[in-house]
Amino acid sequence: MKRILAWVTSIILVLAVAGIGGAGWYYSGLVIDPSRGDSYPLEVTAVAAGRVTLKGGGDLAAPGTYGLTWPEGNATVGEVVATGAGTVTRELREVRQGDLRPGVHVYLDRWMWGHEDPRTALGLPYQKVSVHGELGDFPAWRTEGGSKTWVITVHGRNATASESLRYVPVFHRLGMPVLGISYRNDPGAPAADDGKFHLGATEWKDVAAAITYARGQGATGVLLYGFSMGGGIVPMAARNLPGEPIKGMILDSPVMDWNGPIDLGAEQRGVPLWLASVGKFVVERRTGISLDDLDQVRHAAAFKVPILLFVDDDDNSVPIGPSLEFAERRPDLVTLVRTKGGGHVGSWNADRARYEKALRDFAMRFSA
Prior knowledge:
Elements: H1 2-32, E1 42-48, E2 51-55, E3 66-70, E4 73-83, E5 87-97, E6 105-109, H2 118-122, E7 126-133, E8 136-143, E9 149-154, H3 168-173, E10 178-181, H4 204-216, E11 221-227, H5 230-240, E12 246-252, H6 259-268, H7 273-287, E13 307-312, H8 321-329, E14 334-339, H9 347-350, H10 352-364
Parallel strand pairs: 9-10, 9-11, 11-12, 12-13, 13-14
Antiparallel strand pairs: 1-2, 1-6, 2-5, 3-4, 3-6, 4-5, 7-8, 8-10
Helix pairs in contact: 1-7, 4-5, 6-7
């Protein structure tokens, strides 16, 4: 009997370990596997007299200005003017393209112009260019300007360079060229050897290639501007490239420590935190990265250049605690702008005037 019990116990333990390992593998994939494609969770229920009524999403009532994007079109919406049972009515400022009508499914677009480019979104001339990196050629675009300091924008996870279009006019008025880049695993860009995101541990090398490109085109300095995961890639570039002419960093809703968003994502999915820890372990084993090395708060003393840091109190994707702690540790470098109501990478949308003033004041120091 003892032998049978021991055998059964061993089988149960093996199955338990296999189950935990399989769950950790699955959860790790949610972090490091690229995913593509837009979703359209909101439904238009009425369009009339400069207003549009929407239902179906958690952030419908976010304050400020947003795009409204659907497969065949794009519009601009403003503040909330009325709420109803499960619906929100917002100002309809412009329908740029397509037919906005009841029954159309859309998403509230913090980027404002979906996947457009500087010309179609802003009316600004630009060039499509190629940045050569260690894995091959990476597609990018650049706007023109007379300044020798370029701005290199680094988008977030599963995003594109179009994420930065909101900010290009500020730099254009200052005469600063903007280089909107792609990095490994982006559409049209080379894939990493394992096809996985490394959360900044290797993607910083593609930023290094962009800096080399800018210098080859006459830039004598760069500002690195990162959003979300891009806001974690940019500090890794700054830490790994002490000899490059990086004059400053601009970080918007950055991932300063990957433990926070991984734990938050687990909580939102009903995954116990202990299993999130297993997922982190598997992430490190599958990619060879160290989450401790990607913790910018832990490495706060390593930074040498001025940093403009945007966070929003209602960010439900990346907890802002690490960013606030980083700002507390480096008050000599960090200018912190804290907004409310915009959500993840939504500080500009919630308070455009304040955001652009902070951006302009910071960039003017380097625009000559």
